[in-house]
User: Fold this.
Amino acid sequence: MERKTLVLGVIGADVHAVGNRILDYAFTQAGFKVINIGVLASQEEFIRAAIETAASVIMVSSLYGHGELDCRGLREKCQESGIGDILLYVGGNLVVGKQEFNKVEKRFLEMGFNRVYPPGTMPEVAIEDLRKDLGL
Amino acid sequence: MERKTLVLGVIGADVHAVGNRILDYAFTQAGFKVINIGVLASQEEFIRAAIETAASVIMVSSLYGHGELDCRGLREKCQESGIGDILLYVGGNLVVGKQEFNKVEKRFLEMGFNRVYPPGTMPEVAIEDLRKDLGL
Amino acid sequence: MDLANRTIDPEEFFRQRQEVLNQWTTGKDVDFEEAVAYHKSLPQSKVFGHKLAEGKAKGITFAQPRAGVALLNEHLELLRFLEEEGEADFLPTTIDSYTRQNRYAEAQTGIDESRMVGRSMLNGFPAVNHGVAACRRLIEHLKVPVQVRHGTPDARLLAEITLAGGFTAYEGGGISYNIPYAKEVSIENTIKYWQYVDRLVGMYEEKGVSINREPFGPLTGTLVPPSVSHGVAVIEGILAVAQGVRSLTLGYGQCGNLLQDVAAIRTLPLLAAEYLNKLGYSDFDITTVFHQWMGGFPQDEAKAYGVISWGAAAAALGKATKVIVKSPHEAFGIPTKEANAAGLRTTKQILNMLKDQSLPMTEDLALEEKMIMEETRAILDRTLDLGEGDIAVGTVRAFQAGVIDVPFAPSRYNAGRILPARDSQGAVRILDFGNLPFHEDIKEFHRERIALRGRDEGRDPSFQMVIDDIYAIGKGMLVGRPKI
Amino acid sequence: MDLANRTIDPEEFFRQRQEVLNQWTTGKDVDFEEAVAYHKSLPQSKVFGHKLAEGKAKGITFAQPRAGVALLNEHLELLRFLEEEGEADFLPTTIDSYTRQNRYAEAQTGIDESRMVGRSMLNGFPAVNHGVAACRRLIEHLKVPVQVRHGTPDARLLAEITLAGGFTAYEGGGISYNIPYAKEVSIENTIKYWQYVDRLVGMYEEKGVSINREPFGPLTGTLVPPSVSHGVAVIEGILAVAQGVRSLTLGYGQCGNLLQDVAAIRTLPLLAAEYLNKLGYSDFDITTVFHQWMGGFPQDEAKAYGVISWGAAAAALGKATKVIVKSPHEAFGIPTKEANAAGLRTTKQILNMLKDQSLPMTEDLALEEKMIMEETRAILDRTLDLGEGDIAVGTVRAFQAGVIDVPFAPSRYNAGRILPARDSQGAVRILDFGNLPFHEDIKEFHRERIALRGRDEGRDPSFQMVIDDIYAIGKGMLVGRPKI
Assistant:
């Protein structure tokens, strides 16, 4: 079986490192090649890593509430960089405060993300979606 | 100063004795003559005690949620017994569950009570009302 | 008096039974042999005593709510909600106050009015009026074991109907469902009523059907010294086992001081086993139940969650077999099902976090345990003396003499002479001993602790201190300090 | 390296100051002498260190929330709400994440967008952008003392502005606001940045103005062994006092096992005083802060109240001077003001009920204290050795060598080699020691405890055990047991 590559990171000024370590472990265990760019990652760092490793998916975490500001324009930047079709997943506490998730999800889907996950999602959910979206 | 007499009791099938003991103590300390008929008191026992002691007020407690069933018709029975003008106070957890107090109060005022107290009222509140209503 | 602590004569039992089953029309549907067969058809997962014994072996604490409404469908819906959304380990059926006073006609009015106005006008489920088949419908639609919880001095008919209805646990006792729940009923009578209930349970046990029995531990729920409630619990345990009860859950209501509460829940089964063995009984299994704070609650829900959590923590650290849970609506009386389930989930969270932890033995904890053991033994030994060896007779005389004395009880058969108050750490001590048969050493210990508090507060111990303690929790405090 | 643990040379300080105050336009409004006068005009009731010292003397525990939004009026409204409805003893001003990275232009975008969309687009209050006068408006409209809480590796400008703005307490430190909050910033640099902040506080102190300093205790907030966070707290305390800080609050994040948590909060000030004295410092006042559970929270609010309550109980029983409070919305990030106030009231209820109680000393508690003391001393002694007596130099080398090693930290200046896991009672132990300078006896103790858990669960200790522990509380458990 082909080993697909994922770029994993925590976007913006966010320093939440615990979940990042766990996702890295879980995705690696599930058979993916994980390029982990860690916390405090800019949009440019995600894209650069994705191009360099020919990744199939960019997986963005945001735990600190600024996700909306930080993620805007990521799809457009991907298009400009020639990887416009790459899968974009995002998850975490994406907005400030407890908001209805379906509204949050809608906002991020409109921004060009393929999958949006609420707080507390287990890695297994994303792994299943990855397999589906990548035809594994 | 004239010492006014109060009949104090817990109506119906209610056995909550702690508050009854405290009210007895507080009203007595405040200078009233307290005729305490205790828990499990019927409407008839309240009225009989009020007539026998020429009481100015009947003070009904109900802590167990059946207050609405137990208090119905008390004003009418007082009228039939010739003490139709006696002051009727009631307080406690008067209905089953957490309901808006102003609706509960309205229901009991319509039943002929002069004062209705919500859960957690301190004795001092009732003592002040007693002084006002009795012109002390 | 013709009272005695011995198995009811079968002839006498069946004479009473005729009378009891005729007290209300639903009594005619009780058929003991058929009920035994029905119980045997139930899976073990629905048998209260079985699950309690499992939990005790594993050292975990289960959570159980209180709940009951007037109508069958609504009551079933409520219990299913608590099972699903509240993650309840055990379920209750709380009985309404009219049924508790055997006023079945008034309960019927309550049922009818509830149907009319579309909300429960009763504070519980009137199981006698609903009858055997309705009870079985509950048991069949619920996954976990269900207990009858009430406060009924004469609960013979209620027991006949609910046990035939498939309930596998029954709360109450001749003292604990009299003294805090009645004004004019003699202890002699209620002990007899409850010997009947215990004998009925014994008959089920003899047929191989497990019915758990639980004396009501907290009594008046307000500043009851542990030795007083322990004395009553042990007596009711003895009275029950004497009639053939085997699965026994003894209860204690949280006082609020962690050390005293843990000491109390740990000593309770030891004392019961000690006196049961002493009187020659050996065929019993004792588990414990810890009641979260039974006194006044803060009206604010966030604060109520704090009180609930502290009760859950004490239950877990004391390794009680189960804990009876309050809701964030407690200050307003009966909770919505959502609030009830929320109290359960808060409790479960604490129980799960603490299930691997316990309070280690310390000098202070050992002292609390020693005091509770000595005081309880003093009460029980004097009670046995007064009864010339018969605990039933002794109990009646002990209440007459004030040797057993429950604070703030409505019953005129209770002396009502003792006065409890908290010490500076919030433990419940005794300010006025009445006729409690305590040695001078014990009394000196209590006096010293209360005197220390008096010094802390710059006032002499008095009834005002007691009142302050009763109001304290509603104001967020354990000890009722004077305003500064 | 030109780093050393000695008072910054005044010339160097004023050289840096020019630079710092020019980092953003609001820096020009800082006037030190005028700020000193402003502080002296504040009533003592608004001075953080003063109230802390009072509480410490009385043996009570205060409650403080986290809170911050983008706009001034909304932030003030939020804090007033927490003061009134939450009964907060201390207030915070939590700073947004852009400001923490010194990205003031992005913070400005966040302010502007927040104005436009009518809700806070920032996770805190961007105090640098708002400037000195805005800060003073907060202080003037609030009754209780207010602290700056953030997570800023280079917090020099933020300190200049907020302290001139009347804040009387400032969280952070060169290690605790670097290792968990930055990826690429060297420890040498952040120690220097924080020596500047501490020196600034020292200058206020020399003018008779009390500014409390609080290193951030919980670090990454996830399974941090107490000796690791204690080591960091003591070092930051020394670095602060060396610059003239006097009012010092040392912190610890709840691990979840009551004995370990109480042992930790009790030993923290002892260890700090021991090393401060050893290095020749004597003019300081140490208080403690206990952080309620910093790891994942259950999404269910009722369960979250349980976690909050358990943190409050541990803080009270450990006699921490203050406790930092979580909200029932914790699993979703930043709470509404109502949820924040509810978490406070739950906490206050527990603190009030437990204020007269403490956990008595026991063999188990003494053992936990002994382990924490020995482990922390091992880390500190080796750090001092590595620095040839200089704690600042030693710290840089200790991180290089993995002698200090924080689990799950984002910083590449942290070795990241140790692996913690819970034992069967939920206490945090160490599975892989990396280069922690522990004696074989200490290591054997940890290995034994974790091996016991492995036996309980029928599996070998591994990273999966660690992951299970991280997810556990979200699922209601403390110890992450495998599914059965």
Summary: Chain A has six helices and five strands. The first strand of chain A starts at residue 5 and ends at 11. Chain A touches chain D through 28 residues (CB under 8 Å). The first helix of chain A runs from residue 18 to 29.
